[in-house]
Design goal:
The structure holds two protein chains of two kinds. Chain A is of the alpha/beta class. Chain A has two domains: 75 residues, Transcription Regulator spoIIAA, CATH 3.30.750; 125 residues, Pectate Lyase C-like (3 Solenoid). Helices cover 17% and strands 36% of the residues of chain A. Chain A is built from four helices and 15 strands. A six-stranded mixed β-sheet of chain A has the order 5-7-9-11-14-15. A five-stranded mixed β-sheet of chain A has the order 6-8-10-12-13, with no helix packed on it. In chain A, a hairpin with a 2-residue loop joins strand 1 and strand 2. The N and C termini of chain A lie far apart (57 Å). The relative contact order of chain A is 0.08. The mean pLDDT of chain A is 88. In chain B, a hairpin with a 7-residue loop joins strand 3 and strand 4. In chain B, helix 1 packs across helix 11. In chain B, 40% of the residues lie in helices and 15% in strands. Chain B is α/β, with parallel strands linked by helices. An eight-stranded mixed β-sheet of chain B has the order 3-4-2-5-1-6-7-8, sandwiched between helices. Chain B has one domain: Rossmann fold. The chains are: A alpha/beta, B alpha/beta.
């Protein structure tokens, strides 16, 4: 067996990158990683990124690697990057990217859930509930409850032709739309709710959405 | 083969039973053979409003449990020869005495002999409601211009839309002209746009509805009553006629109205 470098260290301006070989045995890798981490040549506190290449790294394995690298005390792992993910993870990401459409009125006591974005064509009546892991877009009147980013996505927004909700929730933040709330407008037409940088839910005109959340636009093409 | 229509509302006290009695009577007045079925087991009223309380011998639970034939339990309203019948609810048992399948079989049997079967549904969305809608082909949702009644109607419409029946139609009951004109209550447009289902008709609030119900004579028998007109129009729409919606606002008297009142003094 040719003695090939299993762990290569590369310096960049953002810190060190530990590139781990993806063909060798996992046990060899850990052994080598342990030696490299104890290398007296590395001094002071250094941030390192770990690239595992085409090796799939389970959460358990990732923890183990981080523990070994940090055991010497002067290296700190900022992130672990891998070129491969499981099918399960892949499907989850695809679903999150997709948008589901509901046509009809979400009436009192009804609940509509989506794994990605949710488009409702129709009203959401009082005591109706719409919930999505992504953003919620309503072509109609939102008069019930809406929860965007229900899996923790703080970039998600709630947009409606008429935003008159009783409750708005984005990620783990909730706002009850009572009269004393200052963000409510007299004529809530074409508005969107988002998480402001101050951590609270804010409401703005729909036209401002492209500036507030430029990442939401997936349209690629000419002007 | 007749048609079974369930009259429901979710909320209590909006006029399901009154509407059932009046629509049944109005359809009988139009020459149709009608059977009213009271499914509010344990809290029956339809018989009282029709003035048939004293004639009840058997009831719905007796029929379902096989203690009598269906014809024995039906109470005939003598005012309409052979056109209006009532199948009364039981008063001594509760709503769990009947299952939706049994109701469905019963309604199917009644559909053979009658043009219209009107099913008076109990308030709520529990067993009684499920029994009432089991055999229905169509549904009528009754509401009043109150926010609580409209919310419950919304919930009921959502439940009805999940069933295998035609999209429900709406009756707005107990409309008070003066409150609508002063803008202190929901108007017809607010309610229909909120619920977004077809409006079957509106019924104005009238004191005679209560007094005639107490006498056991549905108000619809009085052709000059404004509430009766509402019910008669709805019955004609059920029969497929196209009847324009009556206007709610009487408004303030116009110029000629004032002139007329001046001379009539």
């Amino acid at each position: 067996m040719s003695k090939q470098q299993v762990v290569t260290i590369k310096g960049t301006k953002d810190g060190l990158i530990l590139r781990l070989d993806d063909q060798c045995a996992y046990s060899d890798l850990l052994e080598e990683l342990g030696k490299k981490a104890q290398d007296p040549g590395l001094e002071g506190a250094v941030e390192v990124q770990i690239h595992t290449g085409s090796r799939y790294c389970s959460d358990q394995a990732a923890k183990e690697i981080i523990q070994i690298v940090q055991s010497a005390g002067h290296l700190r792992v900022s992130k672990i990057q891998s070129d491969v993910i499981t099918m399960e993870e892949c499907n989850r990401r695809v679903q999150e990217q997709q948008s589901e459409t509901y046509i009809g009125i979400v009436r009192s006591g009804q609940e509509v859930r989506a794994k990605g974005d949710l488009v409702v064509i129709g009203d959401v009546n009082p005591n109706g509930h719409v919930s999505a892991a992504g953003s919620i877009y309503i072509l109609g009147r939102l008069k019930g409850k809406a929860h965007a980013g229900n899996a923790g996505n703080r970039e998600a927004v709630i947009a409606a032709s008429w935003l008159e909700a009783t409750h708005l929730m984005i990620a783990d933040q909730m706002e009850t739309m009572t009269d004393e709330l200052a963000i409510l407008s007299e004529h809530p037409e074409m508005e969107c709710a988002y998480l402001h940088t101050n951590g609270f839910i804010a409401i703005d005109r729909l036209q401002d959405l492209r500036l507030l959340r430029p990442g939401l636009s997936t349209f690629k093409g000419g002007s | 083969m007749g048609e079974a229509i369930v009259i429901t509302s979710g909320k209590g006290g909006v006029g399901k039973t009154t509407s059932s009695a009046n629509l049944g009577t109005a359809l009988a007045l139009q020459g149709k053979k009608v059977c009213l079925v009271d499914t509010d087991i344990g809290l029956r009223n339809l018989d009282v409003i029709l003035g048939l309380e004293n004639r009840i011998i058997y009831d719905l639970v007796d029929v379902i449990e096989g203690r009598c034939r269906i014809q024995q339990a039906l109470v005939k309203d003598k005012r309409f020869e052979d056109r209006l019948f009532l199948l009364p609810a039981a008063q001594t048992t509760d709503k769990n005495a009947v299952t939706p399948e049994q109701m469905k079989d019963l309604i199917t049997e009644l559909k053979r002999d009658y043009d219209y079967i009107l099913i008076d549904c109990p308030a709520g969305i529990e067993q009684g409601y499920k029994n009432a809608i089991a055999g229905a082909d169509r549904a009528i949702v009754v509401t009043t211009p109150e926010i609580s009644a409209v919310r419950d109607a919304d919930r009921i419409i959502g439940l009805l839309e999940a069933e295998e029946i035609e999209p429900p139609k709406l009756i707005i009951n107990r409309i008070r002209r003066n409150l609508i004109n002063s803008g202190d209550t929901l108007d017809v447009n607010d309610i229909t746009s909120h619920l977004s289902i077809d409006l079957l008709g509106i019924v104005l609030d009238d004191e005679n509805v209560i007094s005639s119900s107490n006498k056991g004579e549905p108000v619809v028998m009085d052709p000059n009553n404004p509430a009766a007109l509402g019910y008669r129009n709805i019955a004609r729409r059920i029969l497929g006629e196209s009847v324009p919606l009556m206007s709610v606002d009487t408004g303030k008297p116009g110029f000629f109205g004032k002139l007329k009142s001046l001379f009539s003094k």
